[in-house]
Amino acid sequence: MTENPTEPEPESTQYDYSFDYIQKKLEGKKDSYGMLMKEIIRAGICTECGTCAAVCPVLEWDHLAGQPKLIGKCTGCGICYNQCPRTITDPIQLMGEFKTGYVSNTNIPEVIGAQDGGTVTSLLSYLFDEHLIDAAIVSMKDPDNPWHPVAQIITNKDDAIKASGSIYCHSQTVEALMDAIRQDYRSIAFVGTPCNIDAVDKMTSSPSGMLKYFMRAHILKIGLFCMDSFAPEALYPFFEKDGIDLSKVVKMDINKGKFHIYYDHDGEPVKSYTIKQLDKFKSSSCNFCTDLTAENADISIGSVGSGAKKNTAFARTGIGAEIIEDAAKKGYLEIEPYNAINLNAVLFLAKLKKVSQYNIQKRKVFIVREPSVIEEPKIESKPEEEQAIAKPLGSRKFLSVSKDIDEEEKLLKITLTNSVGYLLEDLKIRIVIVEELFEKKPWITAIRELFPYESIDIGYPLETVDNEIVYPNVLVEASTEKYGKVFSRTFKLAPKEEK
Ligand SMILES: Cc1cc2nc3c(=O)[nH]c(=O)nc-3n(C[C@H](O)[C@H](O)[C@H](O)COP(=O)(O)OP(=O)(O)OC[C@H]3O[C@@H](n4cnc5c(N)ncnc54)[C@H](O)[C@@H]3O)c2cc1C
Ligand code: SF4
Ligand code: SF4
Ligand code: SF4
């Protein structure tokens, strides 16, 4: 549904002050230089414009490394970070424009299965009761395939209530919308994730042959906040393997970095996972998504920033604001104004999502070379001490190396990251177990090139006795033809809980 052109634009919203507040906060971050390094330089998206060095008396341009270099004490003023053309610091860039923000929750007693405050379901109920829509597109659980979403056309309030609750998977909502248009529904509320909303926004605005269909219907876009969704064909078998009976699950909820599963609406979760644990089941498309708050919706609704059983709602268009406020006036919703503290939480998460794309591993396939030397003579190693390494770049390290033990897979996972702005060519990597002065199980490979700030992961199988890992000392070495030995360190491995 498009904005009413006759409606006067408010001069300035009561939330303008929040933006100023956040702007000041962003400028004053203590770790601004660290953030610039992490988000822009190490992520490989720095354009080498030199602005950061130009605006700061303690930064200079390091021509050798092709990046700024700190030459004095950083005060954390934040100017380098905020002036960088690659950082995203403006609240409007982070979450789009909106007219009014609310903290809201339902006033309808039957809306018990709602995900958070039940605002979406309450708005749909209001829209049906007031005959403002004749259909809505929602996503319901497939009765034959538990927790798989099925996009549906619904035409009444009871079905809106049945459809409440979130399913954290992609749902083919646009297909249902087109069916509704073909079936001659004239005013349709469309509920979807930001990517769903973008699809509808594009169909209703781009001249690719779809515009004429929307002559027949007004669409009110109700967008859900969304940080990520999961592939059901991978996530649900994992849950089932972990003892969860999907047919008994009444609610799934993501809250403060955890994924909770409930058998009972009012009880404690039957199981909780960190989002990191479930990362491998995330839909790959979500890694490329930068919109948390459904920036192209008429109304955007989420939970972040508001308390339990409440929603954060933004009216982005005139019709969106009118609908929320009339629904509240007619007793469907409780609304209160949004404040700077609520907004801060949304902006924080929106920023995480916008910058996460910078950390996508760009190259997954490395060209691995057979090393010309199969095994080198034994080398001396000093546990936990770094070896003397040729350092043509002064004290800068070529490689940073981190380790993690996958106890289930019995693997030592080693991540080597090129930590300078140089291409490392013909990088030879050697991993070996060290027992006193003896070495065993050497593992050697060579990769043709490791680009600046790029990482390569290596899985080194650990020995087991009676299916228990034997925790050895492991020497990791790396050298290049040009720079010689660029990394050498012996790691003492230990079970996770003993660290
Ligand atoms: C994949 C996904 C990820 C989300 N991530 C976040 C997040 O990171 N932060 C945050 O604050 N909020 C997130 N949300 C939104 C949140 O879960 C609630 O939907 C929102 O707060 C509205 O709450 P409510 O109580 O008003 O919803 P309800 O009144 O329960 O209504 C929810 C509506 O969403 C529809 N729906 C359910 N699943 C889907 C789906 N997969 N696709 C399209 N529509 C669906 C239902 O049909 C229903 O109409 C996410 C939602 C989804 C679907
Ligand atoms: S002092 Fe310089 S390096 Fe530190 S935050 Fe300010 S501009 Fe950035
Ligand atoms: S201002 Fe940003 S893009 Fe420009 S050199 Fe500094 S980090 Fe790179
Ligand atoms: S993270 Fe983006 S792509 Fe993934 S479901 Fe949410 S809106 Fe869609």
What would the keywords be for this entry?
disordered N terminus, single chain, five-stranded antiparallel β-sheet, binds iron/sulfur cluster, eight-stranded mixed β-sheet, binds flavin-adenine dinucleotide, 13 helices, alpha+beta, Immunoglobulin-like, Aspartate Aminotransferase, domain 2, Alpha-Beta Plaits, globular, 499 residues
Helix-strand layout with pairing:
Blueprint: H1 16-27, H2 32-41, H3 51-55, E1 59-62, E2 67-70, H4 79-83, H5 91-95, E3 100-106, H6 119-129, E4 135-141, E5 149-154, H7 157-162, H8 173-182, E6 187-192, H9 194-205, E7 218-224, H10 232-241, E8 251-255, E9 258-262, E10 271-274, H11 275-278, E11 299-302, E12 311-315, H12 318-329, E13 333-337, H13 340-356, E14 368-369, E15 399-406, E16 411-418, E17 424-435, E18 438-450, E19 455-461, E20 464-465, E21 468-469, E22 473-480, E23 484-492
Parallel strand pairs: 4-6, 6-7, 7-11
Antiparallel strand pairs: 1-2, 3-12, 3-13, 4-5, 8-9, 9-10, 11-12, 14-18, 15-16, 16-19, 17-18, 17-22, 20-21, 22-23
Helix pairs in contact: 1-13
Structure overview:
This protein starts with 15 loop residues before the first helix and ends in a 7-residue tail after the last strand. The longest helix is centred in the last third of the chain and has 17 residues, at 340-356. The protein has 499 residues and is α+β, with helices and mostly antiparallel strands. It has helices at 16-27, 32-41, 51-55, 79-83, 91-95, 119-129, 157-162, 173-182, 194-205, 232-241, 275-278, 318-329, 340-356; strands spanning 59-62, 67-70, 100-106, 135-141, 149-154, 187-192, 218-224, 251-255, 258-262, 271-274, 299-302, 311-315, 333-337, 368-369, 399-406, 411-418, 424-435, 438-450, 455-461, 464-465, 468-469, 473-480, 484-492. Strand 11 and strand 12 form a beta hairpin. The strands form 6 sheets. An 8-stranded mixed beta sheet has the order 5-4-6-7-11-12-3-13, with helices on both faces. Strands 14-18-17-22-23 form a 5-stranded antiparallel beta sheet, with no helix packed on it. A 3-stranded antiparallel beta sheet has the order 8-9-10. The protein folds into 3 domains: 16-87, Alpha-Beta Plaits, CATH 3.30.70; 95-229 and 283-358, Aspartate Aminotransferase, domain 2 (3-Layer(aba) Sandwich), CATH 3.40.640; 368-498, Immunoglobulins (Immunoglobulin-like). 24% of the residues lie in helices and 28% in strands. Residues 170, 193-195, 226, 228-229, 283, 285-286, 289 line the site of one iron/sulfur cluster.
